[in-house]
Amino acid sequence: MKAVIILAILFAIGIIVLMYKREANIKKMAFSFFILLTIIGLAIVGNVMRSVMPLFLAHIIALIMAYGGLVYYVFREKSQWILWLLPLATLVLYVVIAWVGNEHVIWFS
Asked: What phi and psi, each to the nearest 5 degrees, are found at residue 33?
């Protein structure tokens, strides 16, 4: 599984660089790298959610969809903001669930 993740990252870097050489659009290349680094960062932070396995699986699926949105942006130059924000939404949902789950501690102390 780790090899697939590494290959997907290298594939994304490769298509970003190849599309830059083809189109010479530095803004698109920089934005694509920013989105890729954001997706990687959200994947690393998402390991915190392993305690809630259904939400963690939803986060993994959201990361795959965000990666697909990145590839679509590189080829078509149409932003897919909702796909890029889905992993962040799963992290926010985890924080809300953790906060509500620990709320009883405050009321009984």
From this structure: -65, -35
